[in-house]
Design a protein that fits this description.
By secondary structure, the protein is α+β, with helices and mostly antiparallel strands. The protein has eleven helices and 17 strands. The structure holds adenosine-5'-triphosphate and magnesium ion.
Length: about 375
Amino acid sequence: MTARPVLGILGGGQLAQMMALAAIPLGIQCHVYDPDPVAPARLCAIHHCAAYDDTAALVRFAEAVDVITYEFENIPLSCVSFLNAHKPIMPGISALQVCQDRLTEKTFARSLGFATAPFVDLVPTLSSTDALHAVGAPAILKTRRMGYDGKGQQIVQNAEELDRARATYGTLELILEGIVPFLHEVSIISVRAPDGTTVRYPLIQNTHRHGILRTSIAPAPCHTAALESLADQIASTVLDAVGYVGVLTVECFVVAAPGGSTLVINEFAPRVHNSGHWSIEGATHSQFDYHVRAVMGLRIDPPELRGWSALCNLIGDEPADNDIPVGVAVHRYHKTPRPGRKVGHLTITTTDHATLQHTIDACSELTGIRIP
Ligand code: ATP
Ligand code: MG
């Protein structure tokens, strides 16, 4: 075989693991960079185990690969800028800059004409009373950067609670968001190739508990032609605005609107996303296959779905193989279980929605899925 290009992935968690697995049949070898000696992706990629500020290790990594991507958006920008001087990074630095900060992210979404939750930049000089007046009470206090799985968030009912909550964050920059009275939560997962070709999956419907994603269903049972059309507009506008290459996820709330429902943007993830894991079994191209294809300049074709699919996250614990219903696919991430940690997922794929729901119910009592 002639030499094939090599893909470098910053971060070696389960997203990098599934990306590296998708790259293998495309003839692409992956290297992952992660300071964790037991990073899950080490099992299927060449692991560079070093800190994100170890410039000598970063240079060795850049020399070993042709293109660099990332599996999480909280990588230090200094690391990404350093690497970008050596090898192309996709999606680019500007996408990463927008998505790392909830304030720039929401400002960007608004600048493109899309709705977001009401928000204010909670600068130290802004009083809690004025901030709550701007977004409405109750509200959600969030750190501007580094949040995931609902971490770094607190619901506050009034100015006294907000004062107390703000004090617990020290000098961290904060944002205050109004609570969106959503009917459902959905995600838009789309992919853009370097030539501008863009495709996406139908809307995916997500259920969270305690800020953590529990299940995703595709296509979204709540979808309508109007929501899908708005999703098309959001995906293409956002992707084109930053000349994006790779998979982009937009998390949205579905809210009631005159004459139907509409989408309010919650946040962007400049990467493959937990709500898209069902696509490994449930579509002709998985989100991981698409991401690898896009960043490596391979052709992108539209996805075809294999009926209805559901993802059920395994959180904190894993079921025994024999307890998993026949026909349900299991993905174990090889992570040490601990409370609240995503250690794997199940995928259910069926030809009709009733059977899908029935199988989700059958899985819902399994270890790791039971909802506290
Ligand atoms: P993740 O990385 O898992 O997506 P996160 O830590 O980035 O999570 P968000 O997506 O902002 O956090 O919030 C987690 C969940 O909290 C949302 O999916 C939603 O259920 C709820 N939530 C967040 N912000 C709001 C809001 N403004 N109004 C109503 N619910 C919200
Ligand atoms: Mg989120």
